[in-house]
Specification:
heterodimer; A: about 280 residues; Glutaconate Coenzyme A-transferase; 10 helices; globular; B: about 280 residues; alpha/beta; ten-stranded mixed sheet; 8 helices
């Protein structure tokens, strides 16, 4: 059953040095507050899994927390490149970074396979693509019925998943709506799951019966962090802070400026600071 | 660069690129939209001659009608204006792999004459000179969409004889390379640059210039392309942007710039399918 607890406790109890950790969110509902808490607590040697490592993985990689990243698109969406991640890959700064690169289709299928309890995912993918030659995790199987050659990739089974969601009820069931990405799959694929939510409501009575709900017993810990996805957004609560993503490109371009920004906005900050960051982004 | 310079005819090379690309889309298309230049073209099509077009972004938004161009493939407005929003595994399994997409619309960092695209690395993969974002959805968009359109501004760095990495497969080394790999979709059938419209030769599959944008010379196309350009025997001139096309694109860009700089006032017709 999910337990409600402060974010510092949820991160301390569920993340360990050397873990395979997935902080998921497909542009929407990115668990920034949880990632910042992990940065403050100084975890090391993480293998970070995510389809779209964006600003939060740039920050974690720039702080030297990751030894490896498994991903399918490493960009600041619509803005450009991830400069701290590039510095790690191209110059081993602040440490070298191993990369395991997939396509979106393969990553999404791998999470689904993990949630399904399968050892691998099968897809019609990577035909003619160069990634097959540089990622030994991309293999092929023949369909036993038609003989068609299909791609196979190992299932994702993270030690811990972190996601952000709209709300929990008092029992600890969690509601996600809008662009739901791979969050349901990553929670069900992971051994432990930590969810930050905008708010807690008494119950989910009157909601559409097919909304994406993760039952309390699929989740390890829930922390209430209003604004916890910023500069990403929470559908129904506040908008994406596109200006912050554009600004990040400049901050991350310079090692010293990055470090100063992290000190002021992450290391010297707390989960409670997120609410003020989204105040002007809330719908009137 | 010339991108922002308006020519004597009153439009920029980037504007004619976007507008020429938009004209290639039909209302019956189900289009998987890449971010950037493809996104602008697809939305201009929707706001002008193809109001019924189905635009799909890989974040899971199906039949979306944003009032401003999204900065990312998952901006909130894509979901708010969509017919439905599905999970990302469903997007790639049922809708793309399932064969529901008529046009995959891609941009490119590096492109060769057979429509193969690199958005992964410049230089060696393991010791890159420049690490680019990577493929995202493109490797499978390129093979599962029934056809692929590509749009990019021309440059010698971008249009090269040999790409550094095969992020997504076009026509390989030409001819029937796709069929040899068991791919049963058409692959790249159209390339729209800021200077010209290109189509693959029916046999060799090499991109060939079929139409020059107004005021563009053959020499200009060759100067900004890294391979020896082939021109069709009957070379056409791309019609100049109509007033409505240009106004639609400029209004869209203005709304977008205002929204993304944080100075936005939501437009009155937010969510309207017919703009």
């Amino acid at each position: 059953m999910a337990q409600f607890m402060p974010l510092s406790q949820a991160v301390a109890e569920n993340l360990r040095n050397g873990d395979v950790a997935a902080f998921e969110g497909f542009t929407h509902l990115i668990p920034t507050a949880a990632a910042h808490e992990a940065i403050r607590q100084g975890f090391r040697d993480l293998t970070l899994v995510r389809m779209t490592p964006d600003v939060v993985y740039d920050q974690m990689i720039g702080m030297g927390m990751a030894k490896k990243v498994i991903f399918s698109y490493a960009g600041n969406p619509g803005v450009g490149l991830l400069r701290r991640m590039r510095d790690a890959i191209e110059n081993a700064f602040p440490r070298g970074l191993e990369t395991v690169e997939h396509s979106h289709a393969a990553m999404a299928n791998a999470y689904e396979a993990g949630a399904s309890g399968l050892p691998c995912a099968v897809l019609r993918g990577y035909v003619g693509a160069g990634l097959k030659a540089v990622n030994p995790d991309i293999r092929s199987v023949a369909c036993p019925f038609t003989g068609e050659e299909l791609a196979a990739v190992p299932a994702h089974r993270p030690d811990v998943a972190f996601i952000h969601a709209q709300k929990a009820n008092r029992k600890g069931d969690v509601l996600i709506e809008g662009i739901v990405g791979v969050q349901k799959e990553v929670v069900l694929a992971a051994r432990r799951a930590v969810v930050t939510v905008e708010e807690v409501v008494d119950d989910f009575k009157g909601l559409h019966p097919n909304l994406t709900i993760l039952p309390s017993w699929t989740i390890t810990a829930i922390s209430v962090v209003p604004g916890g996805a910023h500069p990403s957004y929470t559908h129904g609560y506040y908008a994406r802070d596109n200006a912050s993503y554009i600004e990040w490109d400049e901050i991350a371009a310079d090692r010293d400026r990055f470090r100063a920004w992290m000190q002021a906005n992450v290391l010297d900050a707390s989960p409670e600071d997120f609410a003020a960051r989204v105040a002007s982004l809330r719908a009137a | 660069m010339m991108a922002g310079t308006e020519n004597q005819q009153g439009f920029t090379p980037n504007e004619i690129m976007t507008i020429a690309a938009s004209r290639a889309l039909r209302g019956s298309d189900v289009c998987f939209v890449g971010i950037g230049a493809p996104s602008a073209a697809c939305n201009v099509a929707r706001l002008t001659h193809a109001p019924d077009i189905t635009l799909i972004y890989e974040s899971g938004t199906i039949g979306t009608a944003p009032d401003v161009l999204p900065l990312s493939i998952g901006d909130g407005e894509l979901c708010e204006t969509a017919v439905t929003t599905v999970s990302v595994p469903e997007m790639f399994r049922y809708w793309l792999q399932g064969g529901r997409i008529s046009i995959g619309f891609l941009g490119a960092a590096q492109l060769d004459k057979f429509g193969n695209i690199n958005t992964t690395v410049i230089g060696d993969y393991f010791h890159p000179k420049t690490r680019l974002p990577g493929g995202g959805g493109a490797p499978e968009i390129a093979t599962s969409s029934r056809e692929v359109y590509i749009t990019m501004a021309q440059s010698k760095r971008g249009m090269v004889e040999k790409i550094d990495f095969f992020t997504s497969f076009g026509h390989g080394t030409g001819g029937d390379d796709r069929a040899k790999l068991g791919i049963d979709t058409k692959g790249p059938t159209l390339l729209i640059t800021d200077l010209a419209i290109w189509k693959p030769d029916p046999v060799t599959k090499e991109f060939t210039v079929v139409s020059l944008h107004p005021g563009v010379t053959r020499e200009k196309v060759q100067e900004t392309c890294g391979w020896t350009v082939k021109f069709a025997d009957r070379l056409e001139e791309t019609p100049a942007p109509a007033a409505l096309e240009l106004k639609t694109l400029r209004d869209l860009k203005a709304r977008t710039d205002a929204a993304h700089s944080g100075k936005a006032a939501p437009a009155a017709n937010r969510g309207s399918k017919d703009g």
